[in-house]
Predict the structure.
Amino acid sequence: MRSDAGILPESASYHRSIGDCVLDLMVRNCPNLRALGISMRGTKTILAFGPKSSRKGTDHQEEVKMKKSVFLGALTVAGLAAGLASAGTMDDVKAKGFLQCGVSTGLVGFAAPDANGEWDGFDVSVCRAIAAAVLGDAKAVKFTPTTGKTRFTALASGEVDVLARNTTWTFSRDVDLKFTFIGVNYYDGQGFMVPKALGVASAKDLDGATVCIQTGTTTELNLADYFRANNIKYEPVPIETNAEAQQQYLAGACDVYTTDASGLAATRATFENPGDHVLLPEIISKEPLGPLVRHGDDQWADLVKWTLNALISAEELGVTSANLAEMSKAPGNNPEINRLLGTEGDLGSMLGLDKAWAARAIAAGGNYGEIFARNIGEATSIGLARGLNAQWANGGLIYSPPFR
Amino acid sequence: MTATTDTDKSVFRLSMLIYDTRYRSLTIQAVALILFMLGVAWLLNNAAENLAALGKPLSFGFLTHPAGYDINQRLVEYTSQSTHARAALVGILNTLLVAVLGCITATLIGVTVGVLRLSKNWIVARLMTVYIEGFRNVPVLLWIVLFMAIFIETFPQPRDFRGADATASMYLGESVALTNRGFYIPKPVFYDGSWIVIAVFVVSLIGMWSFARMARKKQEATGQILPVMWVNLAIFVIPSVLVYFVMGKPIGLDMPVLKGFNFAGGFYMRNSLIALWLALSLYTAAFIAEAVRSGIQAVSHGQTEAAFALGIRPGRTMSLIILPQALRVIIPPLISQYLNLTKNSSLAIAVGYMDITGTLGGITLNQTGREMESLLMLMACYLTISLTVSAIMNWYNESIKLKER
Ligand SMILES: N[C@@H](CCC(=O)N[C@@H](CS)C(=O)NCC(=O)O)C(=O)O
């Protein structure tokens, strides 16, 4: 039983569907079941009926592999198999023909289905760019809505290939939960929103307030720290999703809603009277939000990382969706643009892709600046200024390592 | 008989394990047991290997680390600096609280409804049927969420109680506030000398019990019925009240008052607790009512007729003759309803009630990434609670069982 042979990835993901479908249907269609989904998914992951080595590589003897896959295939029919991610996520994605992307359950501007049921938003754009780079089709993405609590299990179990869900890069998530954060697409911090009518001017005035807070987030830990440090009391109301928080907050079941400031702005934009609510001046934490993948698949991590960098570099280098087609026709006189768009050199093949991968990623939704402006920028109802998220050359923190 | 045994002992062949009916069942059982154990071992081995592959070998060390999060309802001392183990304890106590409250109310409602469903009054009986069918046939999760939603949307916010143009007001002489965050009710506070009142109260309780015993003895001996209820009511109220005033009112009430964002003082019963408690009670009560009804119907109608023939009034017939016999039928299904209620309380997370599933199986699991450990512990907790409940109830069942002599 302890041979090092890899199980055929296809067979694992194939049989996986039986149990998962039922579970996922339940979990997705009933918001409150989602809360419970975490435990079901959690168990399943651990009890995954694949040999421990399944992710180590495929370069093993075909014969052993066959035998094992038949044996395990038979067992997995029981519906118990979960998807421990197999050898190469990139190969998996190519074989599936679509990218499975974990997003939030709905946060307008970041990830939410639009009027036609198509997912759209700042985080969604990253998923689309990846799909465009790998598969050549920005629409070849399936979205898995995750709550603050279910997101990590979804990623660890292989249910999603990449998680782009307002997720803060922290030490323990990186080191202990074993995820690779591939960069930061939004530098944020935790803020507070209160109804104007309360007349609160500072977070320090919140002594005794009832605070709505999403569970399973960094936010709930920051909140505890901040109130303890300032020696003020509060009553936490734990909540699963942004939608529930909004409902409780608007009904006055809590005085304050706290989460990432960007999330607050996005939530407020959907209110009937956004003007009746204010964000308090305090920003109590650093929340670098970015996409993440599982530890242990560096090829995939590199791809996701450099796709984001391509979007950022494109803005810095002045490549936009308007001039992209023109620029990628023939090499121009900026060598870095040429390397990025594949008109010079062959960076794409180092990633296991073709030359035009980055051009496709940029074509999916424009460069970083365009994505920002369209989804959450000042011209939108969310109205976020670039601030920390301006290019480094403009005094912001957005900075891509060079393409060479 | 002796002859056959002798020959068998002398020649035992291996094939007899299969072909000899005396050994066959043992063989089958042994094989089944071995297969079962192999299966379990394989599962465990698999889990261990997969955990190791994930780089997360089984370890419970995280329980001693600071939890870092706050819990609103805590029956024991807890801060965000307490350990995850402590957070789990807070969760267990919250689970037990709602389970105990739920079991009590479910029983009260269930017995009443069960009896009323057999009422001769057509409307009452039909209403009870509607209630039972309504609650039994809709998943309890929906009831919980519905109660919470109604709660949040219908009761006023604390803010509405403020100012000259307040749109909401308190009840019972400014002592009870019903808000969409929960109910605030007065809390007793004990000053010096209050222990004497409490002691007197306890003594009165003992007095009530002894009087009831005496009355029963007397009735058994002479047939004379003493007015137990009235006398006991007097014992219950008079001495304690007297001492209370004599001692100069040493027990006061801490009234909730609007202060800042919320009411302060008094007892705060959170909306999540009330919604969960109510939903679990009403849901489980529907099942208990059915158990009660079937128990009552299992008692032969001749018993009622005999009681009436002896001139016993209907109320007494029910409480003295029918229910005691029905209990023997009711208790076993009641046990499983109590267990169901306890397990259903794990749906608490849907309304943000911080039970053991919300703390250990929720935030702790999520913040530490220790799924396997948390879930194993969670299962152990529910198992322990359930086994304890059923042990107690089985003991009670044993004690009311028909003693066959
Ligand atoms: N950045 C924090 C909080 C992330 C979070 O939960 N954000 C909220 C509001 S900004 C959200 O995305 N909610 C959407 C949903 O409920 O699905 C973390 O990573 O723990």
User: Anything to note?
Assistant: The domain at 92-186+291-394 of chain A is CATH 3.40.190.10 (D-Maltodextrin-Binding Protein; domain 2).
